[in-house]
Amino acid sequence: MSGDMANSSAGKVLLTGDRPSGKLHLGHYVGSLQNRVLLQHQYSSYIMIADVQALTDNFERPDLIRESIYEVASDYLSVGIDPNIAVIYIQSQVPEITELTIYYMNLVTLARLERNPTVKAELAQKGMTTSIPVGFLCYPINQAADITAFEAEIVPAGDDQQPMIEQTNEIVRSFNRTYNVSLLKECQALIGKAGRLPGIDGKGKASKSLNNAIYLSDAQNVVEEKVMAMYTDPDHLKVTDPGKVAGNVVFSYLQAFHDDKEELRDLENHYARGGLGDVTLKGILLKDLEALLGPIRAKRAQISKDFVLDVLRTGSKKAQTKAAETLARVRSAIGIDYFA
Amino acid sequence: MSGDMANSSAGKVLLTGDRPSGKLHLGHYVGSLQNRVLLQHQYSSYIMIADVQALTDNFERPDLIRESIYEVASDYLSVGIDPNIAVIYIQSQVPEITELTIYYMNLVTLARLERNPTVKAELAQKGMTTSIPVGFLCYPINQAADITAFEAEIVPAGDDQQPMIEQTNEIVRSFNRTYNVSLLKECQALIGKAGRLPGIDGKGKASKSLNNAIYLSDAQNVVEEKVMAMYTDPDHLKVTDPGKVAGNVVFSYLQAFHDDKEELRDLENHYARGGLGDVTLKGILLKDLEALLGPIRAKRAQISKDFVLDVLRTGSKKAQTKAAETLARVRSAIGIDYFA
Asked: How far apart are CA A238 and CA A222, in angstroms?
């Protein structure tokens, strides 16, 4: 079947994705997208637009999710994820994942879920400490279903997502032990370089909710406005003043996007001793960003809405074919394949 | 479609069923089966063999569940549930229910689940107070999916299941309000007469786990042995001794199965004042039970394994057709029907 095409192109399966709760920005590019474009040639990649997971904390905002799916898929295609190599799919279009989730829920205790540090931190961040939606609490189980459905062994993840990988592997071992099979595969995190970008306002990391990010789909004039509004060193009033590099958002972005590292070292020294103005510096960054975003923007302009929908439809079907194979084996292992 | 056939036969939909964790016994007959045989003519009935729910507290005993499905279905057919009128189906063969469950999980808080008195009592009974499987904790949400999938408005239930109905209706209202639809239907419990039978040992109610029940599939000699072993009045040593009616299991069964209530009153009085022996009394009960179980046994003998499997396959398909219609509307209401 078509789902096997992705499998045969490489040995191991990689699973990654995003919650569709807004457009993707440069932080996503540095933190994951850039890497995915390379990894798609190394692993059989499944890239999931996790709408079911997005619903766990946005269940009352389905419109945001619906719109974001198209944006996120366009971002993927614009940065160079190749739908002929990687499988791009929408989580809700693979209902086999919900079925796996239900069976895995029997193998996890409430106490174990409540101990998950990632979920704990997110609950605190969202102010959901007293009123926890069950769907949100259980999303690590849903993730285990996502990963195992495709027999993924490689999961690109930040340090903070290590507990999710551990939860998945616990479920894998528990399932295999309980039903006396060696069916589900353990996975491992592929920890990327700590490439988090700060927001343009210098207040924490770039994020959709803080509206302090440069989006991959931003027009050139918008990027220019955002770069010019970037937080630098508030004490660097005159060009001749010595300026601070640490905490200066322009330098954080240059460190991520300026390829000539020697030149960057010179710029940092120059800025620190005085004589290098913010506007000059921002002009350099803008050139770097446009070198990246220009081709992304050009590619996006070539992509029709119909093409994006076609990619999502085709990818979701491939993903469903693969997940259905896993589910059939899971049902058989549990012994509920009565009519098979 | 074939699923509509059941719908058109009556106005309202009724949902009921059993966890397949053993054969059905006289307690089930008095408590629900007897009633279902009548209700199938009044409501469009869906009768579910709840294997997914049985897995929540028997996940390590799938063989028991697998075997019990055939037994329970045979019990249904033997007592007179007509597969041409009622839809008999296996829960796991309607995966749409798991998908509904996942979406409903976003609408229920952990605190709300932990407050459910039925779940609390069951957890205590099973000794699962410290190590609660998430699947078990969430089964009321799964039940809400069962009920709403078929637009059931009538749910036969014991008093102790009233909290389940309330949980379902809360989800129904929350879903309709959140997605601004009037899609899901509230349901009501149809509280039956409190027809619980005690176990033959007089220790609590008849139950599979205590092995103190008379099964609908028991052979005549087994029924005879069980009746002869029934707990009566331990102080009723000689026939001439006065005997106690209260707490006497034989009288509990006669109250359930002896049709001539006037004659029963006479027997009770005779036993109380002395002169009526246990063996005579048990002979009367045995005749009553055989009048019921004889035809059930005869019917079971006519039912082939293939026929039972065919009923389950056909019923599960009908149920799936109906549940898929509901799910399509639910997905559309949430707005995740991207390719529809």
From this structure: 26
**Residues A76, A216: contact at Cβ < 8 Å?**
no
Answer yes or no: do B110 and A137 touch at CB < 8 A.
yes
Of A75, A41, A27, residue with least CA distance to A300: A75
Tell me which residues of chain B, numbers 164 to 203, contact chain A at a CB-CB cutoff of 8 Å: 178-179
Provide CATH code, domain A3-197+305-334: 3.40.50.620
Residue of A71, A99, A170 best to disrupt the B interface, most CBs of B under 10 A: A99
User: Hey, are the CB atoms on A309 and B103 less than 8 Å from each other?
Assistant: no
Alpha helix (H) ranges present in chain B?
Answer: 2-8, 26-28, 34-39, 51-58, 62-79, 96-104, 110-115, 117-125, 134-137, 139-149, 162-178, 220-228, 249-257, 261-273, 278-302, 305-334
**B298, burial (CB in 10 Å: exposed 0-12, middle 13-18, buried 19+):** exposed
Question: ipTM score here?
Answer: 0.89
Q: A303 with A78: CB under 8 angstroms?
A: yes
Q: What six digits make up the tokens of A149?
A: 């459905």
Structure tokens at A235: 């004490």
Domain definitions of chain A by residue range? 3-197+305-334, 220-299
Interface of B with A in 18-57 (CB under 8 A): 51-52, 55-56
- Could you give the CA distance from residue A179 to residue A183 in angstroms, rounded to a whole number? 9
* Alpha carbon separation from A197 to A29, A73, A162, A236 (Å, rounded): 10, 21, 20, 22
User: Regarding the domain delimited by B220-299, which CATH topology (the fold level of the hierarchy) does it fall under?
Assistant: Tyrosyl-Transfer RNA Synthetase (1.10.240)
Helix (H) or strand (E) holding A266: helix A261-273
Contact by Cβ (8 Å): B233, B243: yes
The verdict on B312 touching A (C-beta cutoff 8 Å) is yes
Write out pLDDT tens, residues A177-194: 999 999 999 999 998 765
CA-closest candidate to residue A19, choices A74, A68, A82: A68
Distance, in Å, from the CA atom of A163 to the CA atom of A114, rounded to the nearest integer, reads: 12
Residues B35, B31: Cα–Cα separation, whole Å: 8
- Give me the residue from A106, A110, A142 closest to B55, CB to CB: A106
pLDDT tens per residue across all 340 residues of chain B: 344 444 444 589 999 999 999 999 999 999 899 999 999 999 999 999 999 999 988 888 889 999 999 999 999 999 999 999 999 999 999 999 999 999 999 999 999 999 999 888 888 888 877 789 999 999 999 999 999 999 999 999 877 788 999 999 999 999 999 999 999 999 999 987 656 789 999 988 877 778 899 999 999 999 999 999 999 999 999 999 999 999 999 999 999 999 999 999 999 999 999 999 999 999 999 999 999 999 999 999 999 999 999 999 999 999 999 999 999 999 999 999 998 8
> Residues near A285 by Cβ (< 8 Å), separated by ≥ 6?
A227, A230, A250, A253, A254, A257, A258
| B 72-91 residues inside an 8 A Cβ radius of A | 90
Partners of B101 on chain A (C-beta within 8 Å) are 98, 102
- Do A102 and B101 count as a contact with CB atoms less than 8 A apart? yes
CATH 3.40.605.10 given to domain B2-197+305-334? no
B323 near B150, Cβ under 8 Å?
yes
